[in-house]
Automatic annotation (TrEMBL):
Keywords: Amino-acid biosynthesis, Aromatic amino acid biosynthesis, Isomerase, Tryptophan biosynthesis
Residue stretches making up the N-(5'phosphoribosyl) anthranilate isomerase (PRAI) domain: 5-200
Reactions mediated catalytically: N-(5-phospho-beta-D-ribosyl)anthranilate = 1-(2-carboxyphenylamino)-1-deoxy-D-ribulose 5-phosphate
Name this protein carries in UniProt: N-(5'-phosphoribosyl)anthranilate isomerase
Gene3D superfamilies (UniProt xref): Aldolase class I
Top-level class of the enzyme under EC nomenclature: isomerase
Species, as recorded: Thiobacillus denitrificans
NCBIfam families tied to this protein: PRK01222.1-4, PRK01222.1-6
Amino acid sequence: MAVRVKICGITRLQDLHAACDAGADALGFVFYEKSPRHVTIETAAALLRELPPFVQSVGLFVNAEPAFIESVLQAVPLDLLQFHGDETPIDCARYGRPYIKAVRVNRDTDLLKYAADFDAARGLLLDAWVPGVPGGTGERFDWRLIPPDLPKLVILSGGLTPDNVAEAVQGVRPWAVDVSSGVEAIKGIKDAHKIAQFIAKAKAS
């Protein structure tokens, strides 16, 4: 079964088209002001109006106030929510939308406990643990820390590039891979060639 690919941190229409044309299964939109890939509600709504059918839209939040998330959902027809902060299972479920929970992984991370606590999540997005940063660092973690019996679908993130995504897919066998900085020209601006390479290598693995 071919791995799914999410291109995260879309900020421009040309990057949206490049990702969709290359075969992306999902696009991520970052609603976190401290990120260089942050989009406003207005920008995200305009981008999603151009999203073709069968490509899923994912909204990324980091410890956001419920009122802010509700305002996003009123204006932006997101398919899936992604929580990248310290949200509890109740926090994640309160919107009545399907969601995934991001987990920053190091040697002390109990992924089996996360899977049990967030049993309503559609999957766990596994990213590298970097002090003080909720994600999007471009750092890779030790994939051997993922339990083989993890009872949740794995979305593998953290330090993935066109050069290592085949190794990641073959070694981890995740449900999906997620990339942002690994396919950028500069922060917040994607490179269409890198996107195409990343998706082709991921899906061929």
